[in-house]
Amino acid sequence: MAQLPGLLDARGLLATAAAQSADLTEDTLSGLVAFILPGSDPYSTAQGASFNGPGGIAAGTVPLLTYVLDHIVPVGTVIAGDTTLPASGGVATLLNAYATRVNPVAAGGGFPSPFSRLSFAEKAKVFELFEGEPSMDGTELRFVAGILPGAVALLSFGEGGVYDPKTRSVSRRPVGWDISGYGGPAEGQAELKGYYHGFRQAIDA
Asked: Cβ neighbours of residue 98 under 8 Å, at least 6 residues apart?
């Protein structure tokens, strides 16, 4: 992600990314999470692809995704000394820039970010443009464009969004557990009793 500032600067978006508010970043990433794992939330409904039940938004994925982007893949910026550009803001800026290319007048709901106002199919087109960007050939951003949807899915289905590090347990049942039918952790299983087919010792083949 160290190459993200250069990519933004080449498009005249570096200052925009640096000045982007946390609210706009959150709104954009909410549109992204709903795209990957739709639920009954307003972002999913607005894109025209929803699910009658909790999805990635309800799973607490947005703040977790923001944290992962900003702390796991920090991005340095050339704007001012040791000031850093949050990776979440940089990614959101790119998504919104592609969104305006896909549909300059998108009006899917009253969301602040252009990306969140796109339809489901238009969001897919954003990633088509993102992944196919010629200027990213040979850079780590090519990898980021491809892995971002998978990373969001992993975070959405995991426990991170509801995990409490103080108690080292989940604060509520994770959405991914219900979707996958997971029964939850178990402290071992009842021991097997008896012998398989009556065998009481190992038999040489």
From this structure: 115, 126, 129, 130
